[in-house]
Give the backbone structure.
Amino acid sequence: MAIAVYRALANDADNNQEKEEFEENRSEFEELAIDLMAQCHSTNPEVAQVVLSRSVKILNDRTCLELAGECEARKCLFHRSCNGLCKEIWNGHILKENSNWLIWFSMIFPPLLFFIHYRDKKEIKSIATLVSNLNL
């Protein structure tokens, strides 16, 4: 949120000194957000992705990932936690061990779908349990 506020203030600033100060503050908050994501990711990557994708009431039921996108916090969006989350959302229940070529060729030749490995119900349930145990 601070990144968006400082970006708007920098755009509305009258002189260059104020504009530079607001941009400096925005950059500082963006670095703090990146450091926080890096700390969460190093502790537990799965929990970091859950935190990014969980809607928060204080943020009007938006996710941290949505907020970073709205604020145009590119450095935050380029972090490996955000990239991993976007890839998980894109892939759905398809496991990471599948070759990209296999997935692309299965669109052209549908019988190849039988060779793609998907998450089992236990793994999906454990992720759901992890999400429900977080109190955000």
About this structure: DSSP finds eight helices and no strands in the chain. Helices lie at 2-12, 16-43, 45-53, 64-70, 74-77, 80-91, 100-108, 121-133. The radius of gyration is 19 Å. The chain has a mean pLDDT of 80.
